[in-house]
Backbone:
C-alpha cells in the first residue's frame, strides 16, 4: 500500500487547487439549485438539485442534449431569470432574494453572448457595441466609447464592417458583433450560449482566443454552452447537463495533460489514443512529501507509476546505490508488471511529488489491448494476403 492519501478527486478539480493555493472566493456558487417552468398541472421541473462552484479565471464549457437545461442554467446565473429554489451567488452577489436594483447592477458586470443576437437593427455595428459601454461606463465620453467599440470590432475581425447595420451583415458577422458587445466592457463574467455556432473555424478560433485572454488577463470567469468540439481544448472544465442535472465536471485539461504524458511513454507506444484516455481516467493521483518510499526492492509489483510533477530517485542494491533520477513525464514500475518478477529497485521522492498510478489489472488490460491491436494489424496487412 502506498503512503499518503489518494487525492484523485481533488487533483482533478481545478477549482480546489486554485482555492487551496490562493484562497480565492468562487465567482459562481450554486447550491441545490432547482428550476421549474409553468404553473399548476403544467408545472414542469427542468433543473434538478444542481451544485456548482466556479472560480475567477476559469473557462467552463457546458454541453448536453437539447432541452437538458443549459440555457435555463445560464440565464439563472446571469440573473435573467429569478432563482426559485436553492441558492445562487455570482460575483459576490446572492441572486436568491436580491432586489431589482441589485439585479440591474449585477447584470451590468456580466457579458452576455446569446444565441439570438438581440442586436438593434437601426444601429450600426459600432453603435451596437458601444451601447454596452454606455450602460457600464456612463462617465466615458462618446469618443472614448466609440474608439473602444471599434477596437473590439477589430479584434473579432470586423474592422471593415463597423458602419454596417445588422441587416447588411451575414449571420456569422452578426454573431461577432454580439460577441464584441458582450466583451467590450471587460466583464468579470462572460455567459456565452453557442458563441461559435455560426462561425467558420478561423473566426471561431479568434473568438475563443479572445475569451482565453479575458480569463487570464482579466481573471474573468467564462461559461460557454457549446456543441462545437473544435473549441473544447480551451476549457478548464467541461460540465455535462443531462435531464436538468450536472452529470460530470471533469477537469479536461488535467486529464489531457496526463494522456499526453502517457502517449510519450514508450511502454504505451502501441496503445490507441482512446485507450490512453481511458488509462488517464483510471489513474489515481497522490501528492507525496519528499523522502517517501514509493517502491521497495524485492516487493511484488502491483502498480505502474507516472510522475505528473516532481522528482524521484531510483536506488538499487544493498547498500543502496543511486541509479537514476526521474522527473515530470517519466514513468517507472512497469518491469515487474511485465515480467512478473519482484521489484528490481527502490524508488523515493526527493521533493513534493504528484504521482499518478495505475493498478496492475488496468495496466495489463491496456497492454493486452495493444497486443491485440498489433495482432489485428498484422492480420490485416500480412496474414490475409
Ligand atoms: N420559457 C419556458 N417555458 C416553458 N418551458 C421552457 C421554457 N424555456 C425552456 N423550457 C423547457 O425547459 C427545458 C430546458 O430548456 P433549455 O432551453 O434550458 O434547454 P437547452 O439545454 O438550452 O437546449 P438547446 O441545446 O436546445 O438550446 C426544455 O424542456 C424546454 O422545453
Ligand atoms: Mg439552449
Residues:
Amino acid at each position: 500500500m502506498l503512503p499518503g492519501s489518494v487525492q484523485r478527486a481533488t487533483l482533478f478539480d481545478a477549482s480546489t487547487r486554485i482555492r487551496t493555493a490562493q484562497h480565492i472566493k468562487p465567482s459562481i456558487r450554486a447550491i441545490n439549485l432547482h428550476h421549474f417552468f409553468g404553473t399548476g398541472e403544467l408545472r414542469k421541473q427542468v433543473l434538478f438539485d444542481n451544485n456548482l462552484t466556479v472560480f475567477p479565471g476559469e473557462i467552463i464549457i457546458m454541453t448536453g442534449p437539447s432541452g437538458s437545461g443549459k440555457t435555463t442554467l445560464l440565464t439563472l446565473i446571469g440573473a435573467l431569470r429569478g432563482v426559485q429554489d436553492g441558492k445562487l451567488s455570482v460575483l459576490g452577489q446572492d441572486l436568491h432574494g436580491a432586489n431589482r436594483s441589485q439585479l440591474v447592477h449585477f447584470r451590468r458586470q456580466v457579458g452576455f453572448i446569446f444565441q439570438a443576437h438581440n442586436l438593434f437593427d437601426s444601429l450600426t455595428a459600432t453603435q451596437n457595441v458601444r451601447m454596452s459601454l454606455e450602460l457600464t461606463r456612463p462617465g466615458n465620453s462618446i469618443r472614448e466609447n466609440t474608439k473602444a467599440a471599434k477596437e473590439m470590432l477589430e479584434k473579432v475581425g470586423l474592422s471593415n464592417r463597423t458602419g454596417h447595420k445588422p441587416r447588411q451583415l451575414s449571420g456569422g458577422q452578426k454573431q461577432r458583433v454580439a460577441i464584441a458587445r458582450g466583451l467590450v466592457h471587460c466583464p468579470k463574467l462572460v455567459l456565452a450560449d453557442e458563441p461559435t455556432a455560426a462561425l467558420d473555424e478561423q473566426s471561431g478560433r479568434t473568438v475563443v482566443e479572445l475569451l482565453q485572454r479575458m480569463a487570464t488577463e482579466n481573471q474573468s470567469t467564462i461559461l460557454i454552452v457549446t456543441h462545437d468540439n473544435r473549441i473544447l481544448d480551451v476549457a478548464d472544465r467541461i460540465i455535462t447537463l443531462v435531464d436538468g442535472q450536472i452529470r460530470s465536471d471533469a477537469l479536461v485539461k488535467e486529464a489531457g495533460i496526463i494522456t499526453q504524458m502517457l502517449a510519450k511513454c514508450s511502454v504505451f507506444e502501441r496503445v490507441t489514443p482512446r485507450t490512453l484516455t481511458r488509462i488517464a481516467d483510471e489513474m489515481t493521483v497522490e501528492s507525496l512529501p519528499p523522502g517517501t518510499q514509493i517502491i521497495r526492492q524485492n516487493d511484488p509489483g502491483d502498480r505502474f507509476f507516472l510522475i505528473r510533477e516532481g522528482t524521484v530517485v531510483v536506488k538499487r542494491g544493498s547498500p543502496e546505490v543511486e541509479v537514476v533520477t526521474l522527473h515530470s513525464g517519466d514513468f517507472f514500475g512497469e518491469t515487474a508488471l511485465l515480467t512478473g518478477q519482484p521489484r528490481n529497485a527502490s524508488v523515493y521522492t526527493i521533493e513534493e511529488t504528484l504521482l499518478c498510478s495505475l493498478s496492475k489489472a488496468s495496466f495489463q488490460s491496456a497492454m493486452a489491448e495493444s497486443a491485440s491491436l498489433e495482432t489485428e494489424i498484422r492480420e490485416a496487412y500480412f496474414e490475409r494476403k
